[in-house]
Write a structure and sequence with these properties.
Helix content: 40-55%
Largest sheet: 6 strands, mixed
Radius of gyration: 19 Å
Number of domains: 2
Low-confidence stretches: none
CATH architecture of the largest domain: 3-Layer(aba) Sandwich
Order of helices and strands: EEEHEEHEHHHHEHEHEEHH
CATH superfamily of the largest domain: P-loop containing nucleotide triphosphate hydrolases
Oligomer: single chain
Bound molecules: adenosine-5'-triphosphate, magnesium ion
Strand order of the largest sheet: 6-7-8-3-9-10
Shape: globular
Mean pLDDT: 91
Length: 253
């Protein structure tokens, strides 16, 4: 096991009487870019919910860096190094692009309120540090020019880049991206792929749900294929593309 492997063991999830995930077992290698593909309704986003903690598994075990996490609330998993992007990026439209990134800083809300009351100077310094960090990340994703603009002006692709900056603020070890290529114009798609690769070169792992198979082929060293709540097969991009079961899963029997 490398340091930040994610291991799923017989993971299942039911919604009422419907078994949406069934005995999902796999290891997502730490520091790698892994693809997760499969037809609509296969259970991909639900699997992200179970990994990030917004839903609990009905069965099974999940380990990250060797530790059991399936019982932990989302913020504890985030603190352990797992960051999750959503299928539809929804920034706070009335806030600036910079503020949207700053909001992702850990230790917000109540904690900040009490610190503010007890040591206001320390909070101001802390906020300046977060703002500097957030600004550096906006430069990294190519949105620095828009830092003061309202998030409402961003295109679909720019929102995905904002989301990436937001996710990076917590210095995660594993980033879950749900369709980073969806609704993104070609020029920005290039930039998103290139930035994902750049983050990965610094040792951060990715698990990427994506319907754009070109993106998957280019970025992912390994691909998991899901269908009807199970892992159908796994392998290199070329291997899964050549697997007749994969084509059948999309086209039906
Ligand atoms: N809250 C819920 N209650 C009941 N069923 C749900 C719930 N959320 C998801 N499902 C069902 O679980 C199955 C898997 O959904 P999920 O969103 O995980 O699929 P997906 O692979 O991400 O699909 P897509 O590619 O369309 O995003 C679907 O059949 C869906 O209808
Ligand atoms: Mg989905």
């Amino acid at each position: 096991m490398t340091l930040h492997d994610l291991e799923l063991e017989e993971v299942g999830r039911d919604f009422g009487a419907v078994r949406v995930l069934d005995r999902v077992s796999c290891t997502i290698a730490g520091g790698a870019i892994t693809g997760l593909i499969g037809p609509n309704g296969a259970g991909k986003s639900t699997l992200f919910d179970l990994i990030a903690g917004s839903r609990s598994p009905s069965r099974g075990r999940i380990r990250f860096a060797g530790r059991r996490i399936e019982h932990l609330p989302p913020y504890r998993r985030h603190r352990a190094g797992i960051a999750r992007g959503f299928q539809v990026a929804r920034p706070f439209l009335g806030l600036s692009v910079l503020e949207n990134v700053m909001l992702a800083a850990p230790g917000q809300a109540g904690e900040l309120f009490w610190r503010n009351w007890l040591t206001p100077g320390a909070v101001a310094r802390g906020e300046r540090a977060v703002a500097a960090d957030a600004m550096a990340l906006l430069e990294f994703v190519g949105l620095a020019d828009l830092a003061r603009a309202e998030a409402a002006v961003l295109s679909g692709g720019q929102r995905k880049l904002l989301d990436l900056a937001r996710l990076l603020l917590g210095r995660p070890r594993l980033i879950l991206l749900d369709e980073p290529g969806a609704g993104v114009a070609p020029a920005l798609l290039e930039r998103i792929m290139e930035r994902i690769a750049a983050v990965n070169r610094r040792g951060v792992g990715f698990l990427i749900i994506e319907h754009n198979l070109d993106l998957v082929m280019r970025l992912c060293s390994r691909v998991l294929v899901m269908a009807e709540g199970r892992i159908l097969t796994a392998g290199t991009a070329e291997e899964v593309r050549a697997d007749p079961r994969v084509a059948r899963a999309w086209l039906g029997p």
